[in-house]
Amino acid sequence: MIKKYSLWLIAVWIVLAVVPVKSQAVSNDDDDWTDLQEDFFPNVSYKFWHERPVIEPSYMISMTKHRELASNALANLGGFDLRLGYAKKEENKYSKSLVNYTMSNVFIGYNSKDFAFSKPETGSIESSILRFGFGEKEGLGYEVANDVSIVPYHATAALWTRLSVNSTPTDSVTANTVNLFNETFRFGKQAEAGILVQFTKNSGITLGYEYSVIFPRHLFWYWAGSEIVEGIAQGVTDNFVRAISKSSPDAAPIVAFILKNGISYGMYELRKKNMNWPFNTAPAMSYNAFKVGVNLAF
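^ that's the sequence the OP posted. Answer follows.
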């Protein structure tokens, strides 16, 4: 069912992307090639001196699951992430009431039962998780006042995760599944939906929900094909959101948040069964976390 709706969603956005939309907010549209570059060939800039350094620590409550394990097989954890990066916030070219926010970052995190709010359930496997990666957070938000903004965002990252269980499970099926990830770093894909609320030029808070997958093996060509499928869907969505920004700018941040995170979450669900969907590959381990953090810009 999820596969069917995901394919339908991708097809709908491709159709919508080629339907001309008349702009009411601006009189001069971007050059078509510029729009294509923004959608499918994002500008990967390493000129960090044009951006602001950001430190973003966060606390999280996390859940790790696998389709071959019982839902409560792995105990819930608590932990911390630390993001270090460079952020850029600028006025949206279609509306002065909107802002574009991007943050390129590297991060490291640690999860353990010692930081969890609740005690592990009886029989659940206690573990710890060490992880690191790099990625980007981007959002279209509202400029509420000078230096005060609310930015619904969508974030993705390349992720390496090391699961360390405290004791080997006695059940052979559980043990075989856990051993695919235990005591070794595994590659994966992180995605996050959230809201950044900036109170001042230098500070703000973030509230987010992370939904990530961890692969038992990294199959490069299958992974690349899966990423291309998602990249096309996201690029078409960016074009659709731009059209909304031109005609109905106040609705654009909400539409962007729903569609971009909707596509990522749909791919996340599909990858739990086939880690490199649409290719028939092994199931991935899933990692979910509720997060609250502080955004400090310098």
